[in-house]
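Re: duplicated header lines in exported structure tokens

Our pipeline writes sequence and tokens for each protein into one text file. With two proteins the header for the second block appears twice in some exports. Here is an export where it did not happen, for reference. First protein block:
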Amino acid sequence: MKVLTVIIMGLLVSPALTAGGSGTVAVEFSLARKQETGVEPKPMSLAERYLFELALESKQARKWGYVYLGAGAALMAGGVAMVAEAREKDWWGEALMVSWGGVALTAAGGGAILGGINTLIVASGPERKYKVVNSLPDALHREQASREALFSLARSGRTKRHLTAGIFSGWAVLALIGTSEPEPALFPGAFAVYQFLRKSRAEKIYARFLEAGGVPPERINVSFGPGPRGGFRMVLTASF
């Protein structure tokens, strides 16, 4: 019970770490652009403005690294508490199970902390691409590079999303093959559908850029309904 309390308290407190300073991100990013050139920020084209928006949102999203740090600390504290609790068990088998559970929990916490540090320190892809674009002296080159960066980031986001959806779809299929019960396949199947339908941040901003420029983006509509012989059918309609 003490272990569970420590973990829950850590998970509840960790999101609060991201609250401070979120409103100053835009100011900090603008000041960084000014400091790079020593003058006022350059006027931005349409593509550059959307790339800047993507970089700004990605920079702000990296504050979730504090959540990973808090969650990792909570998991490690819970793991240490479990190892200490294992010493008080009378039966060696139960003590061994609790001890191994504590070790696994501690390792998971350490991984979360490392992931949080990496998220906070390492700049995201959109940030790196915007830094390169902003260093170009010619406005036409910045416009072309911004267009290429937006397309590349959107394509990469879609590829990762579809790959994740494919992995979890395979997991769901294996779960259905391994047992006659559908419950084990619900989570991977639902997450696969979620990954397939939910577009990444880069895809959404690229679609908005295309719409702002008068170019209709690719659209995929999904509908559900009864299938033949009382089954269930999902229909995908794509327009390009």
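Second protein block, exported in the same file:
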Amino acid sequence: MLYAFIHALHYYHEKKVKGCGDGNQVEDFSDTVLRLLSTRSYICCAAMDRHLDLYEMILQIVWKGFNDLKTSRAKDGINMVARIENKDVISEVYPSLYLLQAAVVLVANGHSEINCKAQKQFQSLTKYIVRSDFPLEGASSAICKETGKLVVSVEQVCICLCQLMRTNACVF
């Protein structure tokens, strides 16, 4: 059911069907998928395990979200230290809570059977989330400005690392 729902949303997004929201369909579609993955991660992971194309579609959405991160503050007030790919520059970025949680879920539930393009997106996303060479960057550095508390638990980061070692997808 979830598979059909997300594909229907994707279809409406691709066809730019009129009358589905306030006209900002790109953000509506991405936000809906990110919210689903971060709030209903077990159900989404089960669907992605059965449908590899769903995993690849959601991976592309999350990867694009991280590639489009700006250094302007998001509504959620989350600060994260990240190293921009192919650069030695450390930047403070401001992902939304849903984007960060969705990325952690995807990395923790990685697939080794994905196509080449998706594999490159997965590797790039992994470098944003977990870094063995710079352990105080990525998801482990994400802090909520209001409370000063970590947004991603140590256990979630460890699960990501274990999954990467289990699938031999170490890209550090």
